[in-house]
């Protein structure tokens, strides 16, 4: 099992990571809309509505997966969640993670705190694998963040997205949760 650590984590008194609630979702939507409109971290091209974002949160919660926010001085400054990797039943023990930090607040340990807590909570559940589907091979910060938490590069889908007038790759990273594939049958 990979150790959950981040050498650049901000002091705990600067921000807190907690479960998201419905009141947090307008701020979550604003954070995500920035990435939709200005970055390749997501391949969406139109920001989803608040109702869409709330439905996405419900889908995670419906399977018992965490949906978290980082809060600093009463303001939501980042969020993350785990969602089903695929809908088919055989994938039920595999999750996909998503992590977003408010524009201008990178390199403060927010992403590391969010991802670390997400992994910790997911390991307490029945899941055994976590997959990161990263928008853009040039997203070095996300790749490094995932690597720091034990994710390994398992492949790259070349030129599968087209955004901002160019073709974009999708690196795939994966890590075991808990005992991973060594989990005994019947324990899940």
Produce a short descriptive summary.
This protein is α+β, with helices and mostly antiparallel strands and 188 residues long.
Report on the architecture of this protein.
It is a single chain. The protein has 188 residues and is α+β, with helices and mostly antiparallel strands. It is built from 4 helices and 7 strands. The protein has helices at 25-38, 50-62, 110-123, 140-148; strands at residues 16-19, 67-72, 75-84, 94-101, 129-133, 152-163, 166-176. A 7-stranded mixed beta sheet has the order 1-2-3-4-5-7-6. Strand 6 (152-163) and strand 7 form a beta hairpin. The longest helix has 14 residues, at 25-38. 30% of the residues are buried.
Question: Secondary-structure blueprint of this entry?
Answer:
Elements (H helix, E strand, L loop, with lengths): L15 E4 L5 H14 L11 H13 L4 E6 L2 E10 L9 E8 L8 H14 L5 E5 L6 H9 L3 E12 L2 E11 L12
Parallel strand pairs: 4-5
Antiparallel strand pairs: 1-2, 2-3, 3-4, 5-7, 6-7
